[in-house]
């Protein structure tokens, strides 16, 4: 029986393709391209990967960064999908247009293979009104609300946390930090997302590697009136020139390079990392207000999984919540980095969005 799915993860400046077996949860083939998804090199790799595996795959699963109101849960692609996707482009202009093109390209190259869109906002469809609503006039609230992102990552982290703790996911209360190029924190209560730091778009929330995160709205008004830069230039700076890169004065957006520079005496790198960790800790502390107990603090995403200096500094700032800060270095597998018997345990979970994508797409068919 064929149980292999192709997963398509189109980032703003990368394209990741995987062939995932949904039975043994193994990745059998992968293709990663560090260029925009619609760049010639990326499209060439996409066509080759689809040509090799497309007709034999059970499905092609696309990560949809922003599902908006149209795609609250995974949905098979049909004749109305592309027009609905176009309506979402303004919400995630760096991501959704690429997804549209790749969906159309797949339909042409492998017409008999069903496609499924898996929204990264889907995990947060359980947000209660108090976490979903923005304090805005009613004439705006019909269009602007908090969605939450990194849902595929959170869903996988919850699955692995359930396995590591030996407890049903529906009985888990956890604080989960997805720390990568994009960063957010989620409060999970009884296996459901009840709050998260990202809101209307992936630019919101805590500071990231290149994105600013939340900013005083008056600062944006001031910039547009006084900086001499137009709306597109301001948006580009907030999306790509801020965060760690901005605070390090353009030195790097890579925490590994910044840790090395800080240890060598670079005060600017040290300051950037300190602010970054403060944002993460503040996000986790804020999310804790949604829970009456914490079964685990979980780090995932490439930085969360692979940067022990960041984890230690974040947890050091959470002493008031009883979070242990004497953590071990990186692991080869998912599991605790806090000491045996410490509560709540601090866990690391390797990000495996491609497996979660394949599982969700298979269930949607």
UniProtKB/TrEMBL annotation:
ATP binds at residues 178-182, 254-256. It is an enzyme of class 2 (transferase). GO terms for biological process: acetate metabolic process; acetyl-CoA biosynthetic process. It comes from the Bacteria. Keywords: ATP-binding, Cytoplasm, Kinase, Magnesium, Metal-binding, Nucleotide-binding, Transferase. GO terms for molecular function: acetate kinase activity; ATP binding; magnesium ion binding. Substrate binds at residue 63. InterPro entries: Ac/propionate_kinase, Aliphatic_acid_kin_short-chain, Aliphatic_acid_kinase_CS, ATPase_NBD. Mg(2+) binds at residue 353. One of its GO terms (cellular component) is cytoplasm. The active site is at residue 120. It is found in: Cytoplasm. Mg(2+). Can also accept Mn(2+). Pathway: Metabolic intermediate biosynthesis; acetyl-CoA biosynthesis; acetyl-CoA from acetate: step 1/2. Catalyzes the formation of acetyl phosphate from acetate and ATP. Can also catalyze the reverse reaction. This is Acetate kinase. The lineage of its organism: Bacteria, Bacillati, Actinomycetota, Actinomycetes, Pseudonocardiales. The gene is ackA.
